[in-house]
Amino acid sequence: MSQEAAAAKQQAADSRPLGARLDSAKATARKAASRFTAAEEALAAAQARPDEAAEAVRVAEADLAEVRQLAQATPAEWSPPAVAEARDLLDALETSPLVDPLHGGVPET
After folding, report:
1. CA distance linking residue 53 with residue 51, whole number of Å
2. Could you tell me the residue ranges of all domains in the chain?
């Protein structure tokens, strides 16, 4: 039965005017070329993914190594400079004779 259907379909296609058949063949060729181009682009993108993934792994491993190194350091080594400066300022204010923390920061006279 399917052979009969295919034969009937082919006979119907062959009975169309030559111009219509030519237009149909051109459209089919354009669609096939478009699918081929899309497949090539997809293949190129897929082939680029391992390189991108390898770079992402390299960056992540470098970040991990840096964080591990920071985790093993003493607090003074990993404190940002602003924190260290703030601590120094706080120490200076606490030991300054101009600051009296018991009386609101104003020295007694």
Report:
1. 5
2. 14-96
